[in-house]
Amino acid sequence: MAFAGKSPRHQASCRLSWRAKATTLYGYRMNKVLIVDDHPVIRLAVRMLMERHGYDVVAETDNGVAALQLTRQHLPDIVVLDIGIPKLDGLEVIARMATFSPGSKVLVLTSQAPGNFSMRCMQAGAAGYVCKQQELTELLSAIKAVLSGYSYFPNQALHASRGRGAGSETDMVNRLSAREMTVLQQLARGRSNKEIADSMYLSNKTVSTYKSRLLLKLNARSLVDLIELAQRQGLN
């Protein structure tokens, strides 16, 4: 559309008006969405789904550090977050977001089995948890529920948060810190100390310290025992 014969101030006003219309739908403000996933194909699929259903995707990124920066910048209504992301793991991202942007609801979208991780995400402050193996329509249902003020978690997560035997493997895993859980997960995937250190921005010595803690906390006699336990818990 041309602005022939209009003053620069009027032209700027018109541009702002059109920009405002782009962020509204039928008189209502579109909910702002931030997408955080280290797989470009997943980000594209989620973006297309969101935009097709009237959501405003304000930004996307592939790592936890940028996720925090973009949340501060855009204050999204909802953050669709994978927990297996580089630079800063998803559990830590959730906890930090809860402190400086409590209005941003975090919905975890991950390939991790819900058994252990869904409860930990709930404890960190996430509002919902959806597995990537499910249909994309499940993500839409979760977003609508979360934006309406509800939590959206698998039934097994809710059951897991109730009485478990104090000495069970699952209970011991659930007692781990977010960092310990991330190290355990990477060990289960066969990562070396150096690979873990590089991905988590830690020193090799710090990773070795975490491994020693894990052996002690999980009553494992060796690294092989530790890896087998992690795999039994579906952490690989």
From TrEMBL:
Gene Ontology MF terms: DNA binding
InterPro entries: CheY-like_superfamily, NreC/VraR/RcsB-like_REC, Sig_transdc_resp-reg_receiver, Tscrpt_reg_LuxR_C, WalR-like
Pfam families: GerE, Response_reg
Transmembrane segments annotated in the record for this chain: none
GO BP field: phosphorelay signal transduction system; regulation of DNA-templated transcription
Annotated positions of the 4-aspartylphosphate modification: 82
Residue stretches making up the Response regulatory domain: 32-147
Domain HTH luxR-type: start-end pairs: 169-234
Protein name: Two component transcriptional regulator, LuxR family
PROSITE patterns, per database record: HTH_LUXR_1 (PS00622), HTH_LUXR_2 (PS50043), RESPONSE_REGULATORY (PS50110)
Keywords: DNA-binding, Phosphoprotein, Transcription, Transcription regulation
